[in-house]
Design goal:
This protein is of the alpha+beta class. It is built from five helices and five strands, in the order H-H-E-H-E-H-E-E-E-H.
């Protein structure tokens, strides 16, 4: 009489595949947000470490100018006074243009490279490339990461205070 059907119907197979696709989409989206969040937290942690070390060194230098070797302070960012000064990288005009820093504190910026980090007993690998650097303001404590951090929308964020607002 009637044949006994064994197996999966086409409708149940289609529903199962759609459910799996939806679960994958939600999982992938959540994972990508978690990756971006972990990169942001890692970047902030590194910048806070550099900020703390720099503040200690700057305070020692203010207290006793002979106690800190010049390399530990980093490279002072040039304030261009001549046309030749404008070719020196980095100079303060480049920082003001790219990172939108406050012009009032322009004489207090120092650049920290992998060498400076190593001289201050910080793992230089927190800067992924030799062309990357941190810029630290000795008065305000603001830290800039030259590579920056791109949020989920692709907007770059360079300063520590800007990145802290993203959390």
């Amino acid at each position: 009489m009637f044949k006994k059907n064994e197996g999966i119907t086409l409708v149940s197979l289609t529903v199962t595949i759609i459910v799996i696709i939806i679960l994958l989409a939600v999982t992938i989206r959540g994972a990508s947000y978690m990756l971006v969040d972990s990169r942001l937290k890692s970047c902030i942690t590194n910048m806070i470490l550099v900020q703390a070390k720099a503040q200690t060194i700057f305070e020692k230098a203010d207290f006793d100018e002979n106690s800190v070797h010049e390399n530990n302070l980093g490279t002072h960012v040039v304030i261009p006074k001549t046309e030749e000064d404008k070719t020196i990288t980095p100079n303060i005009e480049q920082l003001i243009d790219k990172y939108k820093i406050d012009e009032e504190a322009k004489e207090y910026w120092y650049q920290w490279t992998q060498e400076t980090l190593k001289a201050n007993n910080i793992d230089p690998k927190i800067l992924p490339s030799v062309v990357d650097s941190y810029f630290i303001n000795s008065q305000t404590g603001e830290v800039i990461y030259s590579r920056g951090f791109k949020d989920n929308k692709g907007n770059p964020h360079y300063t520590l205070s800007d990145m802290l607002r993203l959390q």
